[in-house]
Amino acid sequence: MKKTFAFLKSHKAFTVYLILVLLIVLISIFAKQIAPFDPTASKLRDAFQAPSAEHRFGTDFLGRDLYSRVIYGTRVSISSALILVAAAMLLGGLMGIIAGFAGGGVDSFIMRLCDTMLAFPDLILAIAIAGILGPSFGNAIIAILAVSWTKYARLARSTVLKIKQRDYIAAARTTGSKDSHILTAYLIPNALPTLLTTAMLDIGTTMLSVSSLSFLGFGIQPPTPEWGYMLSEGRAYIQTAPWLMTYPGLAILITVVAFNLLGDSIRDILDPGTRRSHKKKEKVRKQSVSA
Amino acid sequence: MLAKKILKRIPQMLIVLFGISFLTFLLTYIAPGDPAEAMYEAAGILPTEQQLETARISMGLDKPFAVQYFNWITGVMRGDLGMSFSKNIPVAAALGQRLLPTLKVALLSMAMMMAVSVPLGVLSAVHKDGIADYIVRFLAFFGISVPGFWLGLLLMRFFGLTLRWFPVVSSRAGFKEMILPCLTLAIAMSAKYTRQVRASVLEELSQDYVIGARARGIRYRKILWRHVFKNSLLPLITLLGISFGSLLGGTSIVEIIFSYPGLGNLAVDAVRARDYPLIQGFVLWIALIYMLVNLVVDLSYDLIDPRIREAR
Fold first, then answer.
1. Which residues of chain A are within 8 Å of residue B145 when distances are taken between CB atoms?
2. What is A13-39+56-272's CATH topology?
3. Using DSSP, how many helices (H) and how many strands (E) does chain A show?
């Protein structure tokens, strides 16, 4: 406990962003308690009301309370992004570790598969897959997963290839360690930090992909409140009811910014190597110049 | 030398294209829903069971998978991508119509992006950790986090509705109609590229030859623009190629927002109507574009960077 506190104190930026993200997560968990109205209850009499004391963010074309919808929207965005990133990391990481460890035909098969997937611009392929499978939330998740695992596969593979050459792996082999032991004891723990950092940095982008698909109508289906879909609903009333595009958009922006900031600060803590090596180089340069 | 390299790449490209065509065909084959039914649905007709049966036979849907795929792929090789039943024209023609508008958007938005991100990236790198650097990095961070569709709507509202500078609907695809869609795309891309240019210039500034040149008393300005700037743009070529390729595949969201007649808009239409021949044709087009762009990127390094040329 004391250690945790000291860590938080020495990494102030991280702490601030962490609190911000936790706050958003809490909003999504306690959406039911925070939201003043049922997000799906329509009351046509109250349609298109401008923001007021009763309806803080106004109401939409069905008279639903926008504030409650934005609060509930947190749930879908955060849960889908977390599920997706975790799934992509597991699937991609596993494929990459297998590819790097097995080598040969397995390796080239998995890598060609990655190349083929990479042949498509992210969103376009996701749209095609979501379209072929039919528009639904589950299919949107599958579509984005199909595009996003390749990044993790490449990362995991390169880490495994790097570690495989180390002396301690050779030592483990000569002392009779089995493949499964080498995998779980050395390769997976070594690949994990890089994968986790990438996953953290990916949450914001993934959120944007999910809402983009929903914006196009291929993701979360109404009446579930989702920010991207809310924006596409509000698009028709851009002039008469501008609040319909202001608040859901701000909600996405703030959430994505919070997760991106947290991801950046985690990378800085876990992987200061890039920074340090730069400083070292600078020092060497200064010495060489002064000499 | 160059021709030899291209020839060497062709078989590999054909294999990937073949694989992609097979995958897309397989996906549409196992997809839920009946293409014959989708065709009638697109036409707004409620078909009888007998009509469906005849349609299935005329579309070749009663044949086994391998035969269906073979028929399709031989047609593709002859340039016949099938009929789009939602648009009622050949798929090749439907794609062809959208080509020029898509190319125009790709070029203009890339030009806008370069005009913003190169100066800002260099500025930020030269004044590393200075005020200019912090401002640029802050802007880039926001640019990456802002959702493209929201940005498009905001621009539409401000420049299109409030100021009335540009049209809100871009279905004519003239120059004035292209400004807002391209600006939306350019802002989103600029954020990424500004960071890239900055990192690239910083990397190049830390090279030994820069110290050498400074030690010989060459002016900083001259080193920066004559050598560092030129070299630091090299790593960007790959990225530019990828961006250009994905722009040529269409930019669904922006095209939908501004009703722009590009490929992305067509793709969304095709998916909504479950127009399988059109989806397949579109996916093949994307794969082809991507591979050509990759080839050009690889070859351009050979032409531009003598270090790579000699290393091979």
1. 204, 253, 256-257, 260
2. MetI-like fold (1.10.3720)
3. 13, 0
